[in-house]
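Field reference: sequence -> structure
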Amino acid sequence: MADLPHAFFLPTRNGSLFCLYHAPQGPVQRGQVLHLHPFAEELNTCRRISAQFARALAEAGFAVLQFDMYGCGDSEGDFGDATWATWRNNAQDALAELHRRAGEPTEAAPLWLWGVRSGALMSADMLPNMDAPCHVLWWQPVVSGQQVLQQWLRLDAAKEWLSKDKERIEATPSLSEQLKQGQDVHVGGYRISPELAHELNMLQLTPPRPHNNQHGKLVSMDISASPSSPPPGITRQTQVWQAQGWQPHLQSVTCGAFWQQFSSTDPSDLIDASLACVR
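Structure field:
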């Protein structure tokens, strides 16, 4: 069994970030993994399974750093004041801390960016500024920031239409319209600023230029309740990455949609498949 992770707050230019460092077990470090969590409430619904995989990675000899971005989870700040640029800075600071604790990655012990849902977008956004090659692991990635924002805003739209005051709803500008007008909106207890919404709408799951990381591995896990093929959107996207020199591996695994709600879903297939690919 892996040792308990070390919990600490990492001081950064954007405030203190809550972190969990899982030290690698065994005589040899096999690699390093930086966890990039998903958007808003999905961070909380994914916590249990993300923690399980982090522990499994540590048992297999990987150094793992999990962290909450600014305004998220137990980190400093308010979600409504967050921007994508702030979160990208957080990820760079967390990566530097991972290297400080585990040493610089090597060919024998490479770096992996593990992005869950919108965390895949963050991994893609980090890659152009990487000093050394690394590999990428995605869990149920979204292909654009616009997809993230639209899915989140639909939650509020569905709740409103279930209410009885249809006349008031029809007279009120939609959340998308309010954001375009420069107004903050509130969805599911989270305040989303127009700046963050604009940044999300600009994000795409696109690869870096070939000279940065021609030979990196790209592992994408598609998660569904029953056996199925990866969705067309992510299949097309990985083909774009392959054209840029990446080595893609798409795999479907059977698991409940743990990012949608708190559940006791058994993630063993997802964890075993992911661990096999990272090894």
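Note: Residues 29 and 70 are 29 Å apart (CA to CA).
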